[in-house]
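Why do we care about 3D structure at all? Because function follows from shape, and shape follows, mostly, from sequence. That is the central idea of this module. The next example makes it concrete: a single protein chain, its amino acid sequence, and then its structure expressed as tokens.
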Amino acid sequence: MSEVTYSSRVIARRSRSNLSLPAVRFNSPTNRIQTCAKKLGKKIKLARIELDLTQTQLAEKIDGKQKSISGYETGGSLPSIKTLVKIAKVLKKPAGHFLGD
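And the structure:
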């Protein structure tokens, strides 16, 4: 199998004798956003656990919902900048802590 790279995507070629579909991996903007959301969520969860807070307690402190906190922590959704600042204050971290690598 040979591999050809086109800018940000990798397309794998297979021989003609292999009838399966070619393996394709795209580094689309959506994938990058999902990766960033998951990293941000892990950082929120770690900071929350460091302070021994539950998702419900954190949600109450930022006037939000536990379901929203769960979504942020799993990478299913991203908080607004305003919400991220509230979370950062409660978790005693600078907002940039959650955005950096």
